[in-house]
Amino acid sequence: MTMTSETQTTVRMPQTPLAEFWSYFIQNRGALIGFCFIVFIVLLAIFANFVAPHHPHEQFRDFILVPPAWAEGGNAQFWLGTDGVGRDILSRLIHGARLSLLIGLVIVSVSLVLGICLGLIAGYFGGFADVAIMRFSDILLSMPALLLAIAIVAILGPSIVNSGLALSLVYLPHYVRLTRASVLTEINKDYVISSRVAGAGALRLMFIVILPNCLAPLIVQATLGFSNAILDMAALGFLGLGAQPPLPEWGSMLATAREFIQSAWWVVTFPGLIILVTVLAFNLMGDGLRDALDPKLKQ
Amino acid sequence: MKKSLSLFAGAALATAMASTAVADTFVFCSEASPEGFNPAFYTSGTTFDASSRTMFNRLVEFERGGTSVVPGLAESWEISEDGLTYTFNLREGVKFHARSDFRPSREFNAEDVVFSFERQMNPDHPFHGVSNQDYAYFGYMGMADAIDSISAPDDYTIVFNLSAPNATFLANLAMDFASIHSAEYADAMMDAGTPNQVDITPIGTGPFILAQYRKDSVIRYVRHNAYWEGAADIERLVFSITPDASVRYAKLRAGECHHMVYPNPSDVAAMQDDPNINVLSQPGLNVGYLAFNTNKAPFDNDLVRQALNIATNKEAILDAVYQGAGQVAKNPIPPTMWSYNENVVDYDYDPEYARQLLAEAGFEDGFETDIWAMPVQRPYNPNARRMAELIQADWAAVGVDAEIVSFEWGEYLERTQNGEHETMMLGWTGDNGDPDNFLNTLLGCQAAETGGNRAFWCDEEFNSLVDQALRTPVVEERTALYEEAQVVFKAAAPWITIAHSVVFEPVRPEVEGYVMSPFGSHSFYGVSLAD
């Protein structure tokens, strides 16, 4: 009985694009798990001040290298133990989530916005602008991403803002290429030509007519780029070029814990684990988004 | 090119032999590549381990495992009444290294000694500018001023004329920079048009001959069979360059090396429990410190320096960074050294009082500064970045915001020598067992000009005390002067003296006859491997 009524509604009322997207998205179990985890991490990051049991910089000098609460010698005050100078690892991870997500967001937004603008210009105008922009992004692409970032940070000086800038520049070409390619496939379609005939200006054509139809691949790329940004940020932090102490950035936490790899496993394990899980969550969600947004995969 | 080729041929031979008799190969897991192979140019212990301690001898040597001076290439010596003339009688029958690319035609004699010193001392010497490097220690120790002239009345006598009496002169000659090179090899290389080969693949009289070097990977040596003290027990010596302490530990456990330097303090307990590892230890002749750049405001103010001394919790540093293996330092010289002043009172940790002093100095709201932390592990400071984080938190508690700055090691030393820092961490391991080597080399006015004094602190009272002590031959008088100098130092507080560490050296149980050096150097003559 219920079955028939449900089929009837789907047949009768076409879904809104958002509802349709959502129904495709939740079919993908992995994507849903990734999404839920990301929501969880985002909430942790936003409410870090209330959730974290301690201040991330506070050094409990009497509790250096305390193991996690459940392990032998653990202390209920520090669930995941303390690091080499007595800071609570759980609190640092929670506050580190704020840093990592924020920096990921900034990196992705900067490179996405710039990439879209440059890609639209290259694809829409063609000619010299196209050649100049695309060759520039080819040059950027020809260098290994992390190496380029290291070079930029070495020039600007190590700090979290500079490494964010460096990484935005590194990711820029991906968005430029993607946008340009979509623009080229869209620009000669009838709806664009009719807008043009109706007298729409270049800006209107670019941003209001063409851009919305190119968004799907960009959203997928941005989600996957988010995980890359977090990972590369951690790598820069690990090399001592990203966040500077005492900021609780995941990569630098991992780097300073290296010496304990054989004597205090918890100091190394938890930052590594959270980087792994977060990046995995973003990748799963990115995959799900791609499936849900790609018209070719729809029934 | 020809030379390097034949050198590699020798190395290939050495490797081929290594596979037949593994038991006689001693592998040392060292922490970094040496800066080069001429010890006169450099200051790091890493370089000395790889050059002067293996390949060279000096006129006089430090006794194995001690700080007293014993005969080396000089069999005996006389010092004139006025302390200005040192006459050395050289040992006969000492042979230089013979390699496939160079075979010495004569034995060691006075010409080699004159060459080795004149090269560093005389700017007109044909080899002075070769390799375009500074003679770092020769400058630090003020040798150019100390030595008036060197002469060789005959082949086996050397006379040093000093410009002023110098109580540390003899011990200075046992230091790494005073290693004796082959003058004949230098002439041959000059004739061949490759004078800098003398510094790349040098020839010395030491127990081991350089066979192969690959940067950041490995240094191979073979035994010098004609060594004057008798050939070493180990036939081949290999330095396996392993920058990461955890990796060194893993290699030692796996038996891939017989001896490793600078273990992580956090691993020492586990090593002591391991039946396959013997952990040797002794209090180091060292000090780890934080120097304020007294040329820069606000550190030109005594009150600020004292306040930050008081604001720093050294006990916590000792626990977290040294894992308790050491003791809190109050003087710039270690307690095992003569003239250590027991009566000096250290600044007690008291953040309230520190705030008060800062307010008195006009910094009620604190100020911003930087802490330079070295990127490498040293015997006197196993983890400078962690130490910096602790100090950063301590200072933040009294309102001083410090940013931690770090550079690659060579860059770090150079920039701090130029005084780019506001506060920086470093340390020192004694080179010759004399307090002058700490108090004058690290805190004297001359060192403030050359940058060896990273605090750039030049105090007339302190400097005249230390200067006077250097010119006095009587140990009791020198002790009194140095004790007073330590009081002056503590009051002015150009440093935070942090700790004197215990040095650990884990070795495999089959290693026999290894003796730790109080100077923190590593030499493998006299070491053998049990079956």
Describe the SSE topology.
The complex is a heterodimer of chains A (299) and B (531).
Chain A: H1 2-12, H2 17-25, H3 29-46, H4 48-51, H5 89-125, H6 127-141, H7 145-156, H8 160-186, H9 190-197, H10 202-210, H11 215-238, H12 250-256, H13 265-293
Chain B: H1 2-20, E1 25-30, H2 45-50, H3 52-55, E2 60-62, E3 69-71, E4 74-79, E5 85-90, H4 110-121, H5 136-140, H6 143-146, E6 147-154, E7 157-162, H7 169-173, H8 183-192, H9 197-200, E8 208-214, E9 218-223, E10 236-241, H10 245-253, E11 259-260, H11 268-273, E12 278-283, E13 286-292, H12 302-311, H13 314-320, E14 326-328, H14 351-360, E15 368-372, H15 384-396, E16 401-405, H16 409-417, E17 423-429, H17 436-443, H18 445-450, H19 460-471, H20 475-492, E18 495-507, E19 511-512, E20 528-529
Low-confidence stretches of chain B: 1-21
Alpha plus pi helix count of chain B: 20
Report the total helices of chain A: 13
Radius of gyration of chain A: 23 Å
Annotation, overall tally of beta strands of chain B: 20
Q: Could you say which overall geometry of chain A the principal axes of the C-alpha atoms support?
A: elongated
Order of helices and strands of chain A: HHHHHHHHHHHHH
Give the strand content of chain B.
15-25%
Label the structural class of chain A.
mainly alpha
Oligomer description: heterodimer
In terms of per-residue confidence, which ranges of chain A show pLDDT below 50 for 5 or more consecutive residues? 1-5
Overall average residue pLDDT of chain B: 90
TL;DR of this structure?
The complex is a heterodimer of chains A (299) and B (531). Chain A is mostly helical and 299 residues long.
Write structural notes for this entry.
The complex is a heterodimer of chains A (299) and B (531). Chain A has 299 residues and is mainly alpha-helical. Chain A has helices at residues 2-12, 17-25, 29-46, 48-51, 89-125, 127-141, 145-156, 160-186, 190-197, 202-210, 215-238, 250-256, 265-293. Chain A is elongated, with a radius of gyration of 23 Å. Chain B is built from 20 helices and 20 strands. Mean pLDDT of chain B is 90; it is low at 1-21. In chain B, the strands form five sheets. In chain B, strands 12, 13, 14, 15, 16, 17 and 18 form a seven-stranded mixed β-sheet that branches. In chain B, strands 8-9-10-1-11 form a five-stranded mixed β-sheet. Chain B has a four-stranded antiparallel β-sheet with strand order 4-5-7-6. Helix content of chain B is 33%, strand content 21%. In chain B, a hairpin with a 3-residue loop joins strand 8 and strand 9. By secondary structure, chain B is an alpha+beta fold. The radius of gyration of chain B is 24 Å and the shape is globular. Chains A and B meet through loops of A and helix 10, helix 13 and helix 15 of B.
